[in-house]
Write a structure and sequence with these properties.
Length: 258
């Protein structure tokens, strides 16, 4: 399968500028931006510009990139090399090496160097200076694509902001719901405790009269009758009754035998 540059996302950045040779301090203070993109599946294009009088370009075909992979010494598949290339360009260690012409305000050469991390292989692109309409077109393309990238990020930010707002509303609603449930649970708990207290008091009120009535009954049963006890007189049979007529009579023999 031939190597291609499918789905290559544009990369923007600001390189660290390093000058070789003598040049004015004002030129050394100028900043540059770079734009790396794939206009088609077979080429990689790089624009570097200070948006004044110094704009550079580098175009590499897939075949040239494969040769670069071999010369740099990055093993693995083509996809691995592209991933390494992208990671290097996106790193913070991207440099623009400029060489100034002696006794001139012009620049002799320029090179964009990228390195994924210290100690890793360097990716280097020699740049060709653009002039006239070519330079203007490159700056226009860089500016327009940079604006598109900004709009894309802005749109993503707004989408994330909207999601965050919706999520905040959901969290707030759930919080209010939980607080309402918690309040209801606390209220139910208080009612339950109050009901238990009322029931306990009711039981105490009911048992108190029962104890009083029971004790009164026991007291009544134990208390002696204050009224005098009536002695039942024994009725003596008529034949045993003795008539007292002033003398004492003795029982007859029949009475004794009886």
């Amino acid at each position: 399968m031939p190597a291609v540059l499918d789905d290559f996302e544009p990369i923007f950045g600001e390189p660290k500028v390093e000058w070789a040779g003598s040049c004015s301090a004002s030129r050394q203070a100028r900043g540059f931006l770079f734009y790396v993109h794939s206009p088609d599946s077979s080429h990689l294009t790089i624009y570097v510009s200070d948006f004044r009088d110094s704009t550079w370009e580098s175009v590499r075909s897939v075949l040239q990139l494969e040769d670069m992979r071999d010369s740099v010494g990055i093993g693995g598949s083509w996809s691995d090399f592209v991933h390494y290339l992208v990671a290097s360009i996106k790193s913070e260690d991207v440099k623009l090496l400029l060489e100034a012409l002696p006794d001139s305000s012009d620049t002799k050469s320029a090179k964009l160097v990228a390195q994924k991390s210290k100690g890793m292989p360097r990716i280097s692109f020699s740049l060709t200076k653009l002039t006239g309409s070519a330079a203007s077109d490159a700056m226009a393309s860089l500016s327009l694509e940079l604006f598109k990238a900004f709009r894309g990020l802005q749109y993503q930010f707004m989408q994330e902001q909207e999601r965050s707002l919706q999520l905040t509303k959901v969290i707030s609603a759930e919080k209010e719901k939980n607080e309402s449930i918690q309040s209801q649970l606390e209220l139910n708990s208080k009612r339950h405790k109050l009901q238990k207290t009322v029931n306990s008091l009711d039981k105490a009120d009911v048992s108190a009269p029962l104890m009083t009535n029971g004790q009164s009954s026991l007291d009544k049963q134990a208390a002696p009758d204050p009224s005098p006890t009536k002695v039942t007189k024994r009725v003596v049979p008529a034949h045993r009754r003795a008539k007292v007529r002033g003398v004492v009579l003795q029982d007859s023999a029949n009475d004794r035998d009886g």
